[in-house]
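User: Second chain of the day. Same drill as before.
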Amino acid sequence: MIPDSVLFEEARRLNVCLQWIQWPPGAKCRGFALYDPLWERWVILIDRELEVQRRLFRCVLAEELGHVATGHVVPVGMARWWVMRARAEERAFRWAANLLMPPQEVGRILQCFGADLTAVADAFDVTEDFANRALALYRVAAVARTRIYGREA
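Assistant: Same format as last time:
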């Protein structure tokens, strides 16, 4: 598992300022990266509700850092252009997956636990959704415990 300190060190290396923000009720956004030309630095806004959801916080922060590290962001006025947004999101996610779930470690964990999605997510301290997407990048089909033999495992 990659410790949280690595995420914060990466933010420092990229000259990123992290800020908590209270999104309006019903907002689906958990994090947002933007460049502040006045201060000449990146700012990542993180949903304050993630303070108590550590795994989700790690995943969101890593993906937003991925936007900064890869330079693949969508200009604010073009956020509705889904093709550009989808490409930027995919590149940022790939970067985040390589950081939080390095391929070499994934292989070792799969040898220990098999393709049990819950065990893999626990081993890397990420959400099951994040682990499932990362495993799909590495061409591994994960199995949720509730789907083994059609009943709770």
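Residues 4-150 form one domain.

User: Great, on to the next one.
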